Amino acid sequence: MLVNDTLAAKIAGVFVLLSIAAEFVAVGMGYGHGGPAVVNSISFGSGEQLAELSQSDWFIWLLAFGVLAPCLTMVAWVGMYQVLARGGSTAFCGVVVSSLGMLLGVVAESIRLALVMTLPSAYVGSPEAARPAMLALGAVLGNAFRVMDFASFMVLFAIGVPLIAIAIVRGRQISRWLGWSLLIPTILVGYIGAPLLLLGRPIGGAFLAAGLNVFFLSYVAIGILLLRWRPSGDIKEQSSSTA
After folding, report:
1. How far is it, in rounded angstroms, from Cα 24 to Cα 66?
2. By the 8 A CB rule, do 124 and 106 touch?
3. Sign of the CA dihedral running 186, 191, 197, 201
4. Alpha-carbon span 125 to 77, nearest angstrom
5. What is the C-alpha separation between 51 and 71, in angstroms, rounded?
6. pLDDT grade, residue 25 (50/70/90)?
7. Which residue segment(s) compose the domain that 212 sits in?
8. pLDDT tens profile 169-203
9. How many domains does one find in the chain?
10. Mean pLDDT of 149-157
11. Is the N end or the C end of the chain the one with fewer CB atoms within 10 Å?
């Protein structure tokens, strides 16, 4: 049993680091084409931007890595639960809610990926009479993506991440300071940044970026610790008595 728990923790650590790597690739590609301001300003209701997107596939690759990263994270949550389980029901609820938040984000990014793969080329190749309807469709689906994206941030960081942070602190299987550090993105992203952006307040972007940076640093540290994780003495004693 201990071997299985240790293996699960190591697999979770690998997937944590892979998800961070995928996220960094997406972020790097974004900065290579003007940074977050340019990426976030892309509108599927703009004919000019659709024409530009039809001539390049960099945005497709950026979104593909944006979809891959949370998928890898959801796999990591499953293995991480073996380590967090000593945090009680909080750990289970945290993993479930965080996975739901990630799933909502995957659906949102998938909508945007589907749009960028099909709409720009369809728009450029369509007759003038059909273009206004295509732009209207692109604007509606683009707004749907934004709402779902910000909602996923709120579910993940306002509910899921703080539950996992509490499980880390209570379980004592991972350094407690990492649990406390996860409360920073909880406040900056879940309770300030994402709600402000959802309400159309651009200042929320600064809080969101700061919170995500703290989260990524903490997440990298968690991934490394999972690779090196060994069951504590209490777990070993429980396992021995069960055997």
Report:
1. 9
2. no
3. negative
4. 43
5. 30
6. very high
7. 2-233
8. 888 888 889 899 999 999 999 999 989 988 888 89
9. 1
10. 90
11. C
